[in-house]
Design a protein that fits this description.
The complex is a heterodimer of chains A (93) and B (295). Chain A has 93 residues and is mostly helical. Chain A has helices at residues 10-32, 49-70, 76-92, and strands at 39-40, 46-47. Chain A is flat, with a radius of gyration of 16 Å. Chain B has helices at residues 8-34, 50-56, 59-89, 95-109, 112-122, 129-136, 147-175, 179-188, 192-203, 205-220, 224-229, 241-251, 255-282, and strands spanning 36-38, 44-46. In chain B, strands 1-2 form a two-stranded antiparallel ribbon. In chain B, helix 1 (8-34) crosses helix 13 (255-282). Classes of the chains: A mainly alpha (93), B mainly alpha (295). Chain A binds chain B through residues 4-9, 11-12, 15-16, 35, 37-40, 44-46, 49, 54, 58, 61-62, 65, 68-69, 73, 75, 90, and chain B through 25, 28-29, 31-33, 35-36, 38, 42, 44, 46, 48-50, 52-53, 56-57, 264, 267, 270-271, 274, 278, 282, 285, 287, 289-295.
C-alpha cells in the first residue's frame, strides 16, 4: 500500500507513537490500578484520568504554540514546561 | 469481583474504523504536511516548525481569527435568546404544532450554497427585494461596498438559516418538562418569569449545551455562505479563517502553511468547545460526587 501521500516523517511518526503510548499506558494504569472515577480538583470541575490526559495534551499544544510565537523554534524547554504542567494537572486538577 | 464483557468492543469497532478513516488519518496527514513544504508530485521537504511560526506571526491570520471570534459571539448572542423566545412562543398542542415545526425545519433543509445564493440575490441593490427596498426607503445600503452592510447581511442570513435549529432543540427540551412542575408552580403562585427562570431554563440546559456548541462550531467554521455572498469582501472584511485557509491551500497551493493554520484553527475550536461543554455540564454535577478518589 502506497502511503507516500501521507508524507510521513520520522519526527511526526515519533510524535504520534508517543500519543499512542500515552493512551495505551492509561489503559494499562487503569487495568493495574482501577481508580478512574471522577474527582473534583482545584479547577472545581469533575475529571477522570482520561479528562486529565486530554487537558494535559490540549494545554501542552497551547504551551508549545505560545513558546513558538513568543520565544522561538527550539521547543525543548517548552517540552519541559509541558511535563511539569502535565504532572501538576494529574495531581491537582 | 466485577466481570467485564469485552464482546461490546466488537460493536464499537465499526465506528472506530469509520472515525479512523474519516478523521484520524486526515488529521495525521495534516500534521505531516504542516512540517513540510511541497511543490506537487508528492515531493516534500522538511521545514520543521517554520510554518507554525509564520502563521502565528501573520497579521492576516490574527485578523481572520478576530473576525471569526466576533462573528461567533454575535451569532450566539442573537440566536440563543431568539431561539429560546421563539420556542417559548410556539404552541404545545393542536394543529399549530405541526405547522410551526415544518416552518422551523424549512431553512435547515436548504443547502448552504443555496442559502448564500438566495441572500446574494435578495440583498442586491438593483434587483434584490431587501437591497432595493432599503435603498428606496432612503438607506445607504450596499453590502458589496460597505463593511457594516456586509456584516449585517451575513449575520441576518445566519440568523435566518440557523435560529430554527436552536428553536427546535429548545422546543424539544420544553415539551419534555412534566406537567407536574407547572402545576406546582401554579399552586405556589409563581410568575411567568419565575416559571421560566426556575423550571424551563434549568430543564433546557442540556439541549442548550448542544445548541451553543453546535452554533459556535458551525459559526466558527463558516465558509460557504460568506464565500457566495461577499467572497470575503469588501476588501478582507468578511474573510474568515476558513475562507483564508482555502485561499491559502487551494488558491496559492501553500499546503504547508495551510496545514499549520488548520491545526491551530482546530485547536482553538477544540479548546473553546471543551470550555463551553465543561462549564455548562459541570453545573449539573453534584459537588459531593466522586470525592475521595485520587489520581
Amino acid at each position: 500500500m502506497d502511503l507516500s501521500w501521507m508524507a510521513w516523517t520520522t519526527p511526526t511518526a515519533t510524535f504520534f507513537a508517543v500519543i499512542l503510548c500515552l493512551i495505551l499506558s492509561m489503559c494499562v494504569w487503569e487495568w493495574i490500578s482501577p481508580g478512574g472515577q471522577p474527582r473534583r480538583g482545584i479547577l472545581r470541575f469533575e475529571t477522570t484520568r482520561g479528562d486529565r490526559l486530554f487537558v494535559t495534551l490540549l494545554g501542552s499544544a497551547f504551551i508549545n504554540l505560545a513558546w513558538l510565537g513568543l520565544v522561538g523554534t527550539n521547543l525543548w524547554w517548552a517540552l519541559a514546561v509541558c511535563a511539569v504542567y502535565g504532572i501538576l494537572v494529574f495531581i491537582f486538577v | 469481583m466485577k466481570s467485564w464483557n469485552n464482546k461490546a468492543w466488537f460493536l464499537v469497532l465499526p465506528v472506530l474504523l469509520l472515525v479512523a478513516f474519516s478523521a484520524i488519518v486526515p488529521l495525521i496527514t495534516v500534521v505531516n504536511y504542516s512540517v513540510q513544504d511541497s511543490f506537487g508530485n508528492n515531493e516534500f521537504y522538511w521545514v520543521g516548525l517554520e510554518w507554525f511560526k509564520e502563521v502565528l506571526e501573520s497579521e492576516r491570520f490574527h485578523n481572520a481569527l478576530m473576525r471569526n471570534l466576533l462573528f461567533s459571539a454575535i451569532i450566539l448572542l442573537i440566536e440563543i435568546p431568539l431561539g429560546i423566545a421563539v420556542a417559548l412562543a410556539m404552541p404545545r398542542r393542536g394543529w399549530g404544532v405541526s405547522v410551526c415545526l415544518v416552518l422551523m425545519a424549512l431553512p435547515l433543509l436548504i443547502p448552504w450554497n443555496v442559502v448564500g445564493t438566495i441572500w446574494q440575490v435578495f440583498a442586491r441593490v438593483d434587483i434584490g427585494l431587501l437591497g432595493y427596498s432599503l435603498t428606496q426607503l432612503g438607506f445607504d445600503y450596499n453590502y458589496t461596498q460597505d463593511v457594516v452592510d456586509a456584516w449585517v447581511t451575513l449575520v441576518i442570513m445566519d440568523v435566518w438559516h440557523w435560529t430554527s435549529l436552536v428553536v427546535l432543540l429548545c422546543y424539544s427540551g420544553l415539551v419534555s418538562i412534566p406537567q407536574a412542575y407547572y402545576q406546582a408552580a401554579r399552586i405556589d403562585g409563581a410568575s411567568r418569569w419565575a416559571v421560566f427562570r426556575y423550571i424551563q431554563l434549568p430543564k433546557m440546559r442540556r439541549v442548550l449545551v448542544i445548541a451553543v456548541l453546535l452554533r459556535f462550531m458551525d459559526s466558527f467554521m463558516i465558509y460557504t455562505e460568506p464565500f457566495v455572498v461577499t467572497g470575503g469582501g469588501p476588501g478582507n472584511s468578511t474573510t474568515f479563517l476558513s475562507i483564508d485557509l482555502v485561499q491559502m491551500a487551494i488558491g496559492q497551493f501553500d499546503l504547508g502553511p495551510a496545514a499549520a493554520m488548520s491545526l491551530i484553527y482546530f485547536l482553538i475550536i477544540l479548546v473553546v468547545s471543551w470550555v463551553f461543554y465543561t462549564v455548562m455540564t459541570q453545573q449539573d454535577a453534584e459537588p459531593s460526587s466522586g470525592r475521595g478518589q485520587s489520581s
